[in-house]
Amino acid sequence: MKKGVLEILVLKLLKNDEKYGYQLISELKEKSDEMLTLKEGTLYPILYRLEDDELVISRWSEPKGKEVSRKYYSITEKGEQELCSLYALWSLFSKKVTSIMEE
Amino acid sequence: MEFVFEKSYVDYGGVIMKQKTYIKAIIKKIKCSKKNKIEIMKQLKSDICIALENGESLEMIITRMGTPSEVAREFNENISEIEIKSTRKSKIIMIIGIIVGILVVLGVLVHWALPKTKDIANSTIFDKEIVASQSEIIIGLLDEGAYEILIEDYADDKMNNVLTGEVLEKVKKTIDDSWGDYITITYLNMIEVVQMGKTYVVVQVNARYDEFNVTYTVIFDKDLKLAGLYMK
User: Fold this and answer.
1) Using CA atoms, how far apart are residues B82 and B79, in angstroms rounded to an integer?
2) Judging by beta carbons within 10 Å of its beta carbon (0-12, 13-18, 19+), is residue A58 exposed, middle or buried?
3) How far apart are CA A32 and CA A37, in angstroms?
4) pLDDT the model gives residue B3
5) What is the pLDDT of residues B23-55, one digit of tens each?
6) What is the rounded distance in angstroms from the CA atom of residue B37 to the CA atom of residue B24?
7) Spatial distance between the Cα atoms of B26 and B232, rounded to a whole number of angstroms
8) What are phi and psi of A74, to 5 degrees?
9) I need a surface site. Which of B41, B97, B175, B207 has the fewest CB within 10 A?
10) Pick from A36-50, A56-70, A83-97, B156-170: least confident
11) This prediction's pTM
């Protein structure tokens, strides 16, 4: 379950901009008030799978001066559609969970 | 072997060395395809460099990321899922590929084994006149009872084994006792047939005798040797 949520979050973070791994990890940590501290070993397999499923696409940037080259990930159109449906599914799921817990 | 922090190394170049050693130790413990390993290594290198650019010290970075064992374990736990899914996918594709391959081979075999016909007018191998005169020779020999000649000179090897004078006499007798020479002959059909890689021409001839008619079906191979003979 947590795995599925992480994929939705990664896709959402990539919705408007292309980002690299380190960036995704720090953004997620910041936006979740440090509750979600993803490790590299968790994030990268997720990104690889998203890319295998053609939901994201990656490119290595050219190193600029002192800056080392980075692998930028961006969302594809298929990824945006998938994000919508996954989020809809997740919302429904969490509603049901809440309603049962609050019985 | 666990990665050990070396506290007594000289700093210049030491950071790069340490970084390399750390990454190598991680990669060594990760279980995945070589291609993926290279990708992961590039990624880790890039991440550590970015963190260094951001002001983190290598010690901080390594502490934050964890020991090589811990980092590798994370990867292994999450990667195995992906590789299982993709090997499953490629297995399915492979099975479908094999089935399609088998169907194609079967299709080709069936096509080869089935007879393909065309009228002699469209044949590039057989000539109508030549086939007709050959058929008439055969029928003539039959009428005369010249079975040896028929079998030796005109029949192909298979026919040689099957056809004997006795057989032919018997067949003729079942049709009529008084067999003479035919009076008129009409060609009903001449068809070229290709089956199992061999080419034949099938000739249906109606011969009118004194008191009866016989429909011959004569089959020649591409060398115009007799390959089949039926009488009705």
Assistant:
1) 5
2) middle
3) 9
4) 53
5) 999 999 998 888 889 999 999 999 999 998 888
6) 10
7) 87
8) -135, 155
9) B97
10) B156-170
11) 0.54
